[in-house]
Amino acid sequence: MCLGIPMRVVEVGELTARCDAKGIRRDVSLFLLQHEQLVPGDHVVVHVGYAIQKISEQEAQSAWELFDTMLAAEDAIRTDA
After folding, report:
1. Could you tell me which residues come within 8 angstroms of residue 64 by beta carbon, excluding any fewer than 6 positions away?
2. For 70-81, how does the pLDDT look when each residue is reduced to its tens digit (9 = 90+)?
3. CB–CB of 39/18 below 8 Å?
4. How far is residue 37's CA from residue 55's CA, in Å, rounded to a whole number?
5. CATH number of the domain residue 75 falls in
6. How many domains does the chain have?
């Protein structure tokens, strides 16, 4: 299973961007989104170090809400075991 993580663009370089997700910052390749005009504050889906899709802030927030719910359920299962 592949998992793309929504991240907020903090800084944009020529073919890289500094992105943030929940306080974790990473340098991300923009090679696959060369056609997109990205600016700080935009949101992208990141997979194995590559930004693969530009998304809205609402889509990013919805994804994180789902991830948080899944993590909470996993923690509950571990606690009950």
Report:
1. 6, 21, 22
2. 989 988 888 876
3. no
4. 12
5. 2.30.30.140
6. 1
